[in-house]
Structure formats: C-alpha cells, structure tokens
C-alpha cells in the first residue's frame, strides 16, 4: 500500500505483476535521478557564487532581498485590495446552490460571465505572484535554504514535495481562483435554529393537577378526614376552615406513603418521592408541615426524622415558626440550624450527652445548606440515621450548582454505616434495584419532598436529585407531545395584575415617590438588582421625606434585616427596599404592591418577586420600571406564562412638581455617599 501511494505521487500506476523488490529498486533509481538533476541545477550557481568575491555576493544578495521585499510589499498591497473584492466574488461562485438557493438561468449566466472575468484577473494575479515567487526562489539565495530543509527529509518526502507543488498550482489555476494560500470555509450564513420538540418523561408530562384558582377550589377542613383530629383542631384554632387546592392534593399523598408506618411504604415498597410546583402564595408550606407532623406523632424515641432545607435564614425562620405553631401540642421537637445562633448553641439544641449517652433533642430540623453541612462535618453527635423525610423548599434554587454539595453530604450521612449497626433493625443501605434480598429485612426509606413555585421541568436537573419514582403535583398540565417550547412555564397567582412602566433612568426615583406619595400605594415592597442600589434609593427616599422607609439586603446584619421585616409586617414601614434576598418565599401579610425598581434579569426572579403580593387568594398589583426597549421584557414575561402584562404610563408633567425638591435631595445624597465611601476606606 505504501509503495502504491509513493508510485502515485511519482505519477506512476502500480503494476500488478511487478514484484515489490523491483518496484523499490525503480523507486530508488528515480529518486537518485531526481537528486542528481537537482545537484546539477544548483551546481552552476554554487560555482558562480564561489567565483565571485564574498563582498560582491553579499551586495547582490542584499540587493535581491530588497527588490524581493519591495515586490512582496507591492503584491501584498495589491492582493489585499483585490483580495477583498476577490473574496466576495469567490464566495459568490463557491457557495453551494443549496445554501444560496437555486439560481435562475439569468443569474447562472451572469455568474459564469463573472467567473470568466475573474479567471482572467486571477490568472494575471497568479502570474504576478509567480514572478515574485520566482524572484524569491532564485536558486542562488532562498532556494538554497529550501533545498537544505527538504534534504533533511526522507527521499519519499522530497519526491512528494517536488511533485505535489505543481499539482497544487494546477488545481488552483484550474479552479480559477486566486486563493491558493487560503481556504474559504464558508457556512457563516445565518441559519434559523431548528425548533425541537421536548419530550418529557411521563411523570413530568402528566402531573396531578392542582387548580390555580384558590378561592373557587377551597376544600372544607371537614372533608379532609385523612388529617388527624388534633391537627384539624390546630388548623381551626388558627382560623383555617378550608384547605387550599395544593394542600388538599398533597397532604393525602404524603400521608398515604406513611399509612403502613415509617418503616415501609405502601404494599411494603419504598414510597415515591413527591414534587410540587404551585404558584407563589398558594399555601405550599402547610402542604408539608401538616403531613410531616402527623406522620411523626406516633414516634417513640426522639431522633431527627424530618429535615427541611431552605436557601436563606429568613425563610428557615419562617418555616420553623410554622412547624413550631403546629407541633406545640405534641411531644415533637423542632430545631432550627440556620446560623441565627452560634454553632455551639445550635449544637446544644440538637443533641445532649448524659451519662456518656448521646441523645437527639430534635425530631424536625429546619436548616440552611451552609449550617447543615457544618453540623454534618463538625458536630459528632448530629445524626441523620433515622431520617425519613427530606424536604427541599424552593427546590429549584436549592438545586442550583453552588448548593449541590449539601445534598450528597446528607445522603452520605443517612446511609452511613456505623460500627455495630450491621445487625440493627435501623440498618440502612443506599437504595439499589429492588430484589428479594433488598426488601428483607425492610429498611426505613428516605422520601424526598420538593416544593417550588418555579420547579424546573428540566429532567436533566431533576435527575441530579436521584428521585425515586417521582410523582409531580403541578398547577399546569403540559402534554409531552404538544410541548414544543424549551423554556419552563410558570403559573402566576390568580389575583395578580402586572404592569410595566416605561421610564428613563433619571425619572425612576421620582416615579417611586409618585407611587407612594401621590397614588398612596402602601405598603410597597420594592426590588433593586444590587444592594448598593437598594441603599442609595433608601437614602434618597429618606431624605425626600413623607415615607417611612427601610432597606433589606446583605448589607445589613441578620438582626437588622429581621428588624426591617418585622417593622414592615407591622405596618410601621411603608416602603421596604430590598434585593432578591426577600424575593423568594418570604410571606408578608398585606403587601398590596410590588415594584420592580430594577427589572429582574431572570424570569424566575420576576415570578418570585411579584409573588410577594396576591398571596393566599388575595389580589395584588406589580409594577416593573422599564428603561428603553420593553419588547424583550414583555416577551420574557409572556413566554413564561404570564396571563397579561399591561402598560402603565406616567406622564412626565405629573412628576414636574417634585423635581425641584428632588434636585436638592440629590445634592445631599451625593455628599452622604461620598462620606460613607470615605469612611469605608479607613
Ligand atoms: N388553608 C389556608 N387558609 C388560609 N390561609 C392559608 C391557608 N394555607 C396557607 N395560608 C396562608 O397563605 C399564605 C401563603 O402561604 P405559603 O407561604 O405557604 O405560600 P407558598 O406557596 O409557600 O408561597 P411561596 O411560593 O411564595 O413560598 C400564608 O400567609 C399562609 O398562612
């Protein structure tokens, strides 16, 4: 094969009859002949060079080099000029018909004419290039170097170079293009991305439907016979007569999985994991608080059996309070591990050691991922060996890459083999395929319960949670076949009215003052995209006066943040300016209006921000200030499933009156910020 390739390079066809020895001899002879002829060619030059004096030779050399460089420059300039023209032309002729579309006869004839014209141009150009190359390739100078270089290579290679070069030039001139030195790749045309149909797994495509309209789908508490009398009484005591749709659907499903006790699922099998995707303010918290408390009511020994993980301290505190209020008449103990207290104080509230024996002081732990990982790694007495429920609230946020590590640590700890546990009835092994051996003896299952208003439909992301035969409860029904969109769609609360307000950057602060002072929207929860922006706006509104204002961001300590929320909840504050720290899950009673002072960058943030109003079946209004092009924002919101975004125009004349005072305030604000920055530097 090797020889046949070499023969083809030499322009000879392989003879079937000739032996490989004779072929190799012929090849050797040919190569020797070629080397000789080259030697002969270079000989007169070398002799001539020897004859001339060294000084003259140098002079000639430098002269030729100069000439060559000048010509090269000229050629470069020309070819650059021509090149641009040429590239366009070449593209015209080389674009395949399926890309450029099938040309008509006229176009085709025009193109052939163009081609002919170009051929002459490019041939001329090639000649020009050829001249220059021949000047540069004068055997007395540069070619010597070239020969030296090729001589270092194998004979076959030499032959290949010598024969391949004219071949290439023939090909180029045959094509009639001047682009012998570069290759046109093509394929830069704008192509419309092909829309693909998304096929969802059955459990995602066919969820158990939760009605969106809370008020017309209330379920009387008396009908919820699956809830134990103690908890029903508790609910009544808190003024709850009816359950919301999400609660009416999810509570029985979780309770069903503990019908046979904590150790085994229905029919002796492992219970299915549960995912809930329901609008903001639809009552998802009670949908897991009630069944978890009921499932653990009969427990004998206090062990951590339920772990609730939430993204922020404030949310953890909120859920902790709900758990405490429903567990208060039971023997269950709820503990929070979210960094509100010192690590050692949390450690002491989670477990105690008496007489050398450690015992758990918590049945239900409400935690943030950071503190949870701290306890897993540093708290020797913290055990998750008896964990039955892992509840992940704001599940989509929690599964974001940066928060992933905690989940694997929890699973590792749940299935950790402790010394002497091999024969224990509580022995647990990481679940694998179901076999007779794996079912006997039965082990306590770990059931995952996921909740969010913006639960992803991305199976790849959900896969990371290692869900077991998941069951989805959702406020929407997306058919696996009809779904062509790739973006997740969300359900917005029924009572929410959404508006956008076109404005300019300088008018934004005036607009917010207008909403509070003139339109008397109170209380207002306002969102900015950064803590600096929240702080500046807070100072500005405070300086302007007439509005009780507070800020809420990571700029403040957790104590200060708690204070701000409390004051806002109690009605002492009219305007709370926050970053996205308060966008998720925070349940503040009576927020009638949400203002997105800065439009959110991601749709999920928008859904959660506007969801701080219109909660629990009530009505609410959300405004988003939009700078410049609003089409993109409108599209984003509509594609996410918003029922309708309306335009709200505030005429500039209305803001005129406020402008003089605003000017004064701006001056003061500048001074304050400068002082603050100076203080920060020292
Ligand atoms: N059955 C009910 N009857 C009356 N009010 C209820 C009921 N269930 C929940 N609520 C109230 O509805 C409000 C919203 O509930 P919750 O905070 O659980 O909503 P959510 O779905 O978790 O919202 P988000 O997605 O924003 O976290 C709370 O103030 C809660 O007390």
Can you walk through the features of this model?
It is a single chain. The chain is an alpha/beta fold. The protein is 48% helix and 12% strand. Helix 11 crosses helix 12 (313-327) and helix 20 (531-544) packs across helix 25. The strands form four sheets. It has an eight-stranded parallel β-sheet, sandwiched between helices. Strand 15 (549-552), helix 21 and strand 16 form a beta-alpha-beta unit. The protein is globular. Residues 240, 242-244, 247, 280-286, 453, 585, 587, 611, 615-616 line the site of adenosine-5'-triphosphate.
Secondary structure layout:
Layout lengths: L1 H8 L10 H32 L2 H41 L2 H4 L4 H32 L5 H10 L3 H21 L26 H4 L2 E2 L9 E2 L8 H9 L4 E2 L1 H12 L17 E4 L6 H13 L9 E4 L3 H15 L6 E4 L5 H8 E4 L2 E4 L3 E4 L1 H10 L10 E5 L1 H4 L6 H10 L21 H4 L7 E6 L6 H5 L7 E4 L21 E8 L4 H11 L5 E4 L3 H14 L4 E4 L5 H12 L5 E4 L14 E4 L6 H8 L9 E8 L3 H9 L5 E3 L4 H5 L2 H23 L1
Helix pairs in contact: 3-5, 10-11, 11-12, 14-16, 20-25
The chain binds adenosine-5'-triphosphate.
The site of adenosine-5'-triphosphate (ATP) has 18 residues, from strand 3 and helix 11.
Shape verdict: globular
Present as ligands are: adenosine-5'-triphosphate
The whole-number mean of residue pLDDT values reads 77
User: Structural class of the secondary elements?
Assistant: alpha/beta
What is the CA-atom radius of gyration, in angstroms? Answer: 39 Å
Quaternary structure type: single chain
Strand content: 5-15%
């Amino acid at each position: 094969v090797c020889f046949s390739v070499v023969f083809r390079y030499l322009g000879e066809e392989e003879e079937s009859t000739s032996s490989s020895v004779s072929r190799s001899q012929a090849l050797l002879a040919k190569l020797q002949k070629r080397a000789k002829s080259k030697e002969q060619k270079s000989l007169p030059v070398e002799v001539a060079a020897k004859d001339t004096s060294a000084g003259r030779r140098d002079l000639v050399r430098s002269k030729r080099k100069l000439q060559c460089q000048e010509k090269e420059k000229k050629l470069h300039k020309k070819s650059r000029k021509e090149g641009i023209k040429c590239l366009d032309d070449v593209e015209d002729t080389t674009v395949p018909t399926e890309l450029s579309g099938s040309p008509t006869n006229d176009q085709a004839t025009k193109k052939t004419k163009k081609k002919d014209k170009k051929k002459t141009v490019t041939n001329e150009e090639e000649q020009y290039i050829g001249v220059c190359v021949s000047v540069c390739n004068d055997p007395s100078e540069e070619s010597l170097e070239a020969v030296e270089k090729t001589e270092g290579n194998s004979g076959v290679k030499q032959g290949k170079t010598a024969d391949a070069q004219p071949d290439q030039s023939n090909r180029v001139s045959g094509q009639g293009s001047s682009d012998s030195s570069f290759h046109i790749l093509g394929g830069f045309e704008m192509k419309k991305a092909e829309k693909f149909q998304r096929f969802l797994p059955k459990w995602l495509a066919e969820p158990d439907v939760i009605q969106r309209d809370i008020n017309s789908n209330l379920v009387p508490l008396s009908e919820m016979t699956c809830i134990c009398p103690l908890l029903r009484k508790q609910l009544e005591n808190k003024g709850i007569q009816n359950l919301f749709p999400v609660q009416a659907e999810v509570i029985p499903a979780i309770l069903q999985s503990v019908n046979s006790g904590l150790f085994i699922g229905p029919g002796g099998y492992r219970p299915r994991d549960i995912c809930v995707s329901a609008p903001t303010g639809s009552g998802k918290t009670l949908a897991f608080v009630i069944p978890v408390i009921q499932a653990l009511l009969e427990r004998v020994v206090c062990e951590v059996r339920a772990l609730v993980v939430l993204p922020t301290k404030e949310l953890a505190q909120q859920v902790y309070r709900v758990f405490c209020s429903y567990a208060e008449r039971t023997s269950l103990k709820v503990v929070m591990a979210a960094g509100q207290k010192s690590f050692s104080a949390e450690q002491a509230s989670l477990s105690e050691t008496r007489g050398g024996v450690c015992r758990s002081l918590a049945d239900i732990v409400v935690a943030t991922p950071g503190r949870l990982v701290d306890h897993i790694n540093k708290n020797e007495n913290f055990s998750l060996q008896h964990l039955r429920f892992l509840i992940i609230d704001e599940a989509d946020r929690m599964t974001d890459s940066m928060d992933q590590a905690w989940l694997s640590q929890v699973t590792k700890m749940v299935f950790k083999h402790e010394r002497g546990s091999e024969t224990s009835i509580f022995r647990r092994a990481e679940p694998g395929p179901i076999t007779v051996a794996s079912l006997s003896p039965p082990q306590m299952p770990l059931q995952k319960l996921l909740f969010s208003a913006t639960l992803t439909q991305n199976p790849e992301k959900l896969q990371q949670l290692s869900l077991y035969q998941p069951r989805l409860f959702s406020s929407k029904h997306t058919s696996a076949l009809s779904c062509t969109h790739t973006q997740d769609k969300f359900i917005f609360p029924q009572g929410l009215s959404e508006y956008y307000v076109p404005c300019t950057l300088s008018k934004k602060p005036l607009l917010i003052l207008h909403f509070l002072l003139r339109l008397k929207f109170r209380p207002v929860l306002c969102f900015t995209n950064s803590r600096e922006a929240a702080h500046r706006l807070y100072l500005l509104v405070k300086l302007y006066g007439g509005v009780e204002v507070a800020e809420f961001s990571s700029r403040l300590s957790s104590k200060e943040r708690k204070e701000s929320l409390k004051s806002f909840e109690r009605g002492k504050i009219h305007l709370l300016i926050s970053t996205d720290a308060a966008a998720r899950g925070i349940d503040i009673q009576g927020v009638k209006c949400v203002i997105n002072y800065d439009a959110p960058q991601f749709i999920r943030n928008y859904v959660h921000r506007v969801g701080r109003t219109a909660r629990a079946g009530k009505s609410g209004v959300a405004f988003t200030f939009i700078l410049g092009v609003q089409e993109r924002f409108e599209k984003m919101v509509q594609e996410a499933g918003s029922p309708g975004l309306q335009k709200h125009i505030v005429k500039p004349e209305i803001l005129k009156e406020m402008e003089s005072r605003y000017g004064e305030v701006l001056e003061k604000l500048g001074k304050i910020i400068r002082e603050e920055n100076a203080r920060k530097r020292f």
